[in-house]
Amino acid sequence: MSEQVRIPYVAREKELKDLYLPMVAPEDRPQTALELLGEMLKYKRSLKLYLDVCTHCGACAEQCHSYLGTKDPYNMPVARVDLVRRVYKQVFASGPSFLRTWDGAKAIDQETIDLWYKYFHQCNQCRRCAIFCPKGIDTAEVTIAMRELLAHLGMPSRFHAGIAKNMAKTGNNMGNPLPAVLDGIEFLEEELKEETGLDIPIPVDKEGAEVLFNPSSSDLYVNTDGFMAVAKIFYKAGVSWTLSSKITETANFGLFFHEPSMREHSRLLVQAGKELGVKRLVAGECGHGWRTWRMFTETINGPLPFPVVHLFEEVLGYLRDGRIKFDKSMNPEVVTYHDPCNYARAGDLINQPRELLSACVQNFVEMTPTKELSFCCGGGSGILMDEAMKIREALAQPKAECVRSTGAEILCAPCAICKAQLPDVLEHHKVDVTVKGLSDLMGRALIL
Amino acid sequence: MADLNVNGVFIPLDEDGFLEDSDLWNEEVALALALTEDVEELTEEHWHLINYLRDYYAKFGVAPMIRKLCKETGFNLKKIYELFPGGPAKGACKVAGLMKPTGCV
């Protein structure tokens, strides 16, 4: 495998062991891959359909930020999926072999697998292509399936596998042990007291609380303004809430590459909610974590014992009921909104954040394109590895131009991945803007 | 990445240039790591930050939240970037021999 193909770094034996994933020798990979693909085609009907129905019309190509940003032909959604389709045509598709060869069939080899690794880690699973595909092909579904297949070939990315391992060990992606989490929370309570003069609690494991709030662990490391804002909002609305000491993570990286990790993450959270006897679970600012709840959890884990709502739905309820009020003048800057892909194209969250923004900022401007047509930040599906920074910068290029043309001073990007990706890549593209979560802005404007 | 040569002793680094084994850290290793981060000299202020990180790491096994790091060292984020151009996580943590913070950061 060439150096270029090893970006992002492939997991090592120690990460594979933790996830019970096998090591597969390079020469055995093609045969094992065929067996895995054959199995997947039996239970993933969407995958089979997407491999069958593409007409190569090319409508997707210019709509993909990955192709626009890298100009690498394999990053056209059609060409990316063709890396699998050609094997499918060779081995699994029906019809006479000469027709299939004519249709692009090609035998699998080690190089094919290296190409899968490289190009399925340059798709952000953003689903923009699916909006433009006349056949409705959703490349994100193919990328999810192929990353799962790669994981079972012993080739998840090191970054993803390490995070899934951290999650399994500590209940958060950063791998913060409970004493560190509690130390951070205690510190933030002191900060809240210093800032507001009020005793605003951040409860942990409070039995019988109405709400179990599940933040992203990065809210307890770097995005602390947003996290403190949530505590203030619950306080002002008079809602009894709690965190769980067992899980402080809404970012479910299992969605990106490993279904067992995704299932276990959701199971742990549901169990935590049940033990605490909460009435509902409120998910924090995290795009794909929200997509997992809205689109996958009930199918994969079974019926939920309580509703799971997004923070924006919850807070909008308070606002409409008059339980909280905002002072817009606290956010006088020009603010634009970046639609996280998993909210706008996979999670039914388009108008709610806009209603909240309109209530808490003075100068809101829309970006073009926007809502379900918005471009990805280029970090989606956990492409946040330092070693992939050049790729991340290229993937972010279309978004950077959209942000630049708004002239905004603040870019509201309410997703932990977007918040991690955008400041670095926008600086690279020389777009002068401050990236903030929606919670941060609501916290600034909240009248306590 | 190549191992770190500290006065003839080779200390293994991962691909991102962080120590593979944080137990191998000492002040000389810190100086060598600082050079990989374009920090030519470790001043009193650098050591103030490094020592805080190491104390926290010894107690909790991870890096502190950025807000706490700033508050308790008295350095704002801008100052930390001046001291370590790689920033608190990728610069300061590396020189202090901590693991690289991972996740959505």
How is the secondary structure organized here?
The complex is a heterodimer of chains A (448) and B (105).
Chain A: H1 13-18, H2 29-43, H3 45-53, H4 65-70, H5 77-91, H6 97-102, H7 110-119, H8 128-132, H9 139-152, H10 158-170, H11 178-196, E1 211-214, H12 224-237, E2 241-242, H13 254-257, H14 259-276, E3 280-283, H15 287-301, E4 308-310, H16 311-320, E5 334-337, H17 341-344, H18 351-360, E6 363-365, H19 389-395, H20 397-406, E7 410-412, H21 416-428, E8 434-436, H22 438-445
Parallel strand pairs in A: 1-2, 1-3, 3-4, 5-6, 5-7, 7-8
Chain B: E1 4-6, E2 9-11, H1 27-36, H2 44-60, H3 66-73, H4 77-83, H5 87-95
Explain what the structure shows:
The complex is a heterodimer of chains A (448) and B (105). By secondary structure, chain A is mainly α. Helices cover 52% and strands 6% of the residues of chain A. Chain A has three domains: 22-155, Fumarate Reductase Iron-sulfur Protein, Chain B, domain 2; 168-320, no CATH class; 328-445, Rossmann fold (3-Layer(aba) Sandwich), CATH 3.40.50. The relative contact order of chain A is 0.12. Chain A contains 22 helices and eight strands. In chain A, the strands form two sheets. Chain A has a four-stranded parallel β-sheet. A four-stranded parallel β-sheet of chain A has the order 6-5-7-8, sandwiched between helices. Chain B has 105 residues and is mainly alpha-helical. Chain B is built from five helices and two strands. Chain B has helices at 27-36, 44-60, 66-73, 77-83, 87-95, and strands at 4-6, 9-11. In chain B, helix 4 packs across helix 5. The A-B interface holds A 9, 159, 162-163, 166, 172-177, 179-180, 183-184, 187-188, 191, 216-218, 220-222, 224, 251, 286, 384, 386-387, 416-417, 419-420 and B 15-16, 59-68, 71, 90, 100-105.
